[in-house]
Amino acid sequence: QVQLQESGPGLVKPSGTLSLTCAVSGGSISSSNWWSWVRQPPGKGLEWIGEIYHSGSTNYNPSLKSRVTISVDKSKNQFSLKLSSVTAADTAVYYCARSEIVVVIPGAFDIWGQGTMVTVSS
Amino acid sequence: EIVLTQSPGTLSLSPGERATLSCRASQSVSSSYLAWYQQKPGQAPRLLIYGASSRATGIPDRFSGSGSGTDFTLTISRLEPEDFAVYYCQQYGSSPPTFGPGTKVDIK
Questions:
Q1: Which of A1, A2, A68, B107 is deepest in the core (most CB within 10 A)?
Q2: For every one of its 122 residues, what pLDDT tens digit does chain A have, with 9 covering 90 and above?
Q3: What does each C-alpha distance from B74 to B66, B80, B91, B104 come to in angstroms?
Q4: Chain B closest CA to A3's CA: distance in Å?
């Protein structure tokens, strides 16, 4: 079955850029799914960051849109997140997740990666 | 964006009891595109319910979802020890998808 695995630096300096990758195994990133990033600050709730389709089409959370870029690499079967100008408020566990298309829109998040903790600190 | 409110914040119950969790949306959720997730400490969320009332693959039938419009409910008919966790609702009918703040179900 499809599995997702996040990877990337666990520590990022303030004002720097957070970069994470999600590797997709057991299935193709070019299937009829949207691929998302979701984050969770320590002890807090879940926040959707954005999503990408294998065609390269993206949607971002308006609250983060100016700082977020999500891209896809079909040759490596993975997608990536870049979040610029980070502050301590961006410290969180970052998850990648899959949603199947429901009629024409992304559905619920049915598969999640295990998550990776990113701390923003000097 | 649609704001989701969950109640209660914490639910203290004993194994075998029935749990009723509420999720209210600030505006109608399109086509009942409402999901419920379970999250245990140190783990990723797990999809329980989608489309307000459909169980995800492998989810026991003691979990059920209901509701439409702005009011949704997750019911756990008889709590098992492994059900004590935090539960989040999420709407995906309009962008951006949003999550509720969660309800913690703990052991009384």
A1: A68
A2: 999 999 999 999 999 999 999 999 999 999 999 999 999 999 999 999 999 999 999 999 999 999 999 999 999 999 999 999 999 999 999 999 999 888 878 899 999 999 999 999 99
A3: 7, 15, 14, 13
A4: 13
